[in-house]
Amino acid sequence: VPMVAPGNVQVHVINSTLAKVHWDPVPLKTVRGHLQGYKVYYWKVQSLSRRSRRHVEKKILTFRGNKTFGMLPGLEPFSSYKLNVRVVNGKGEGPASPDKVFKTPEGVPSSPSFLKITNPTLDSLTLEWGSPTHPNGVLTSYTLKFQPINNTHELGPLVEIRIPANESSLILKNLNYSTRYKFYFNAQTSVGSGSQITEEAVTIMDE
To answer: Taking every annotated instance into account, which residue ranges of this chain make up the domain Fibronectin type-III (predicted)?
Structure first.
């Protein structure tokens, strides 16, 4: 098997899900056989938004021939990763380079995990929601938009409310009685808005 590990391994993080890794080629005489390529082993150490330690699954990408760089796609935003590089010949792979640590930046969050509308009265509705399963960063706020829908399914004026990230419920007051409302709800990180969840609810007709 090859005798030495690739040197000078560098990681360039391109965005929250993509990184580029490059390395110096090993001297050909240390390959001790036919150079087939290089293997990059990489794995997620932890999410930076949650302290959960999961079973670490190592991923391997093989770059054929004498390439000295490769792309690592499909990374998770706002996470800490480690990687190393090994050279491969027909017999197997050589020793690993020292582990290199890199971090991906924040991304936009997934949609809130749920939106529930309860306690209808003549002029109010209570909204409850769950934070996104994948925040992909530090949540900065939620945005709620809502509008009435009349009997011919036309949409009325849209109202927008910014809600602090640490809230998980809201009572909407001063609504019209016996009116159907449509709600659009999403979360934000400093990077931008995530995908929205929608829901409809009706205020009651009379007490």
So the answer is: 5-107, 111-207
